[in-house]
Write a structure and sequence with these properties.
Helix 2 crosses helix 3 and helix 5 runs antiparallel to helix 6. The chain contains six helices and no strands. By secondary structure, the protein is mostly helical.
């Protein structure tokens, strides 16, 4: 899972930036803002989060999860906080299921080894895997 620190570090790495001071200049922010993000005193707003994700070339699914977690932190009442935490849990569970589906598909494909001497493939002999998305 990505964190705000991880997101900032991804931007630094992708753009060859060596310090938070230079990162602040690159993002046209103050160094104080970056330090506040790093120490949890403040969090990026949604627009800044999207910009950091783009600049860091981060998977949108990871950003969706981080955005939901940040919304939970910002929530002004317990009902809103619980709503965002449930959304974050569902996003995380969905990502976990997707990874498992991909692993099953890879294993299924890798487990099939056609006869090396065959010149043609009989498609009726190929394994058929059904994938159900819940």
């Amino acid at each position: 899972m990505k964190t705000v620190d991880g997101l900032l570090d991804a931007v630094k790495s992708r753009h060859g930036i060596s310090s938070d001071y230079k990162l602040a200049q690159f993002l046209k922010m103050t160094q104080h803002t970056i330090a506040n993000y790093r120490h949890g005193r403040s969090r990026p707003d949604d627009k800044t989060l999207a910009r950091l994700a783009e600049l860091g070339n981060i998977d949108p699914a990871e950003i969706d999860l981080l955005a939901a977690q940040l919304q939970a932190e910002r929530a002004t009442n317990e009902a809103a906080k619980q709503l965002w935490l449930r959304i974050a849990d569902r996003l995380q569970a969905g990502a976990t299921h997707l990874v498992m589906l991909i692993a099953v598909a890879i294993v299924s494909i890798a487990g099939y080894a056609p006869n090396a001497g065959a010149t043609a493939v009989n498609h009726s002999e190929l394994p058929c895997t059904k994938i159900y998305i819940v």
